[in-house]
Amino acid sequence: MKVLVTGGMGYIGSHTCVRLIESGIEPIIIDNLSNAKVEVLSRIEALTGQQPLFYQGDVRDEVFLDSVFANHNIQAVIHFAGLKAVGESVAKPLEYYDNNVNGSFVLARCMRKAGVKSLVFSSSATVYGDPDTVPITEASPTGATTNPYGRSKYMVEQGLSDLFFAEGDWSITLLRYFNPVGAHPSGTMGEDPQGIPNNLMPFIAQVAIGRREYLSVFGHDYPTPDGTGVRDYIHVMDLAEGHIAALKTVGEQSGLHIYNLGTGKGSSVLDMVEAFSAACGQPVRYELCPRRPGDIAECWASTAKAERELGWQATRSVAEMTADTWHWQSKNPQGYSPE
Ligand code: WQD
């Protein structure tokens, strides 16, 4: 089985490609390398013995996409390519809507031309906005998003849902990620954010390795057990396996399939700091700071639907998430080397 993986050189895409190859599925990667390094290819090869086919290009380039579909018998697409920094999206909304929304619909149009009707879309828990209750189920209200990034994911979900109801022969799976963290247990692949990390885990890792002086804890007056924000952190390897489970169970069934990919457990910022300190064997220095605009107090998933319908559930603990992150960061202090 050949699967086109857009954004397959990125953090979640590359870890998913490792598990695809190990599952006997051949990934064909397209990526514009706007937030990824070509070195990832050799890391995938070192782990799996196979270097996936890679075409540098942009999902908004219809001619490029048509050529890839014309040259390969692709059965399904996993669509990771997109911009994903919440704060950046507030400053650059047009770039987010062009990359994430326009890119997704150009891709769907090219899939239709090529007769490829199985699509797994990398969505996000941000489509739920600030939940009234937790845990969040797939039936929880969506759309009350608080930033252009979340709105772009919601728009794509809506467009793909409309496409399915217009043309019922598609298999469209929307995977709503909670908070992806961690790294491949080998320590050779991991998250490599460019510039100052927006997300908690890579920032903590950079404090531990000495690249950052301390972690700013954004808010300690939330209505949570220790006053800091609570999230559902999920190991990137669990997330990768969730994609394969989706491909194998509903990837060939016409339908609109929607699943949360989380652990069903919430951890606070200070929980993560404590776990990381245990993983790296040293305290992680932090300062308590005011809340970050747009943040919500708590968010974690109900995972019952994915367990029931995909036969998938996350198995890796917060201790493994932090240990694998530290293993990656300590072996690769500067991330993947620049070209
Ligand atoms: C987590 C917690 C912060 C940084 C975002 C996207 C979401 C997904 C994951 C793509 C919050 C606190 C953070 C820091 C801190 N990305 N924090 N100091 O905002 O839950 O979700 O990333 O799909 O779509 O919205 O993740 O890691 O930024 O924050 O205290 O330096 O850590 O306040 O409570 P978030 P995050």
TrEMBL record:
Record-given protein name: UDP-glucose 4-epimerase
The encoding gene: galE_1
Catalysis: reaction(s): UDP-alpha-D-glucose = UDP-alpha-D-galactose
Any one GO MF annotation of this record: UDP-glucose 4-epimerase activity
Keyword terms of this UniProt record: Carbohydrate metabolism, Isomerase, NAD
InterPro entries referenced in this protein's UniProt entry, alphabetically: NAD(P)-bd_dom (IPR016040), NAD(P)-bd_dom_sf (IPR036291), UDP_G4E (IPR005886)
Biochemical pathway: Carbohydrate metabolism; galactose metabolism
Family (UniProt): Belongs to the NAD(P)-dependent epimerase/dehydratase family.
